Amino acid sequence: MNLRATVTCLCLAAGLFTQAANGRELHALWTVEGRHNTVYLLGSIHVLRPGDKGLPQVAEDAYADAEKLVMEIDMDDLLGGDAMSLLGLMQQMAMLPEGESLRSALGADYEAINRHAQQSGLDLALLDRFAPWFVATTLLQLELAERGFSPELGIEQTITNRAIADGKPILGLETAAQQFAILANLPLPLQKRFLMMTLEHSDDLDEKIDALLKAWYAGDSAALAALLSDEYKEFPELYGPLTEDRNRAWVGELVDLLDDEDDYLVVVGALHLVGKNSVVDLLQKRGFAVTQR
Description:
alpha/beta; single chain; two-stranded antiparallel ribbon; globular; 13 helices; 6-stranded mixed sheet; about 50% helix
């Protein structure tokens, strides 16, 4: 099991560059000016394929200007000695309580779900002690890998590798355990619904990916926000904790950064930066001027 893939599959988001109405090229990069520093907010796509475009120059410039990096989680932990302990923690949180099984959690739908999962190369019998949310993220990993997507090529990993080489500190807005808990704390019926939605969406996953990437390469913030809104409406019990709740938690930490002396590059999934109650929206509501670059 690839821990980084599991973490990044929690929220697949995108956004890098766009064209403003006045012809000036814009990017999914926002700046917020503190009293003595600048905080850059960079929209990320967590997984990419060989040949997909990388960072635009304005993002490269923001990286060069920043003394420190901030990501959804401290990516150093996934590369160092903590990786195995995090993997153990993830498996522990994914285990069903004693006496329960995946078959019992899925009930009468088990066989149909298993047949669908086997088409993606996954036999549910091998995961019978694991919770439905874990099976759903595993299936999503397989589907994305089949299409050539890898977290190793994603924006976070690319920037992390560069930061390690350059000796730039990386901070996390939350822990991997907090991310796992979002799904692990869902009641089993909602976890089952999440798994069934993952299977249902596998039939139109290519269409959804194309829409995300089209919005990403076009930098269409409205389109990205609409994609998030569609998912939110379909499953608010999941997408509320995955997006808005986390945005609210992060904003307090970002406000603290704006009272620092160092410049920061904050890298989060771009769907966290667009639409109502996004990080950008919440900062603006607090009175900060947020400028898209």
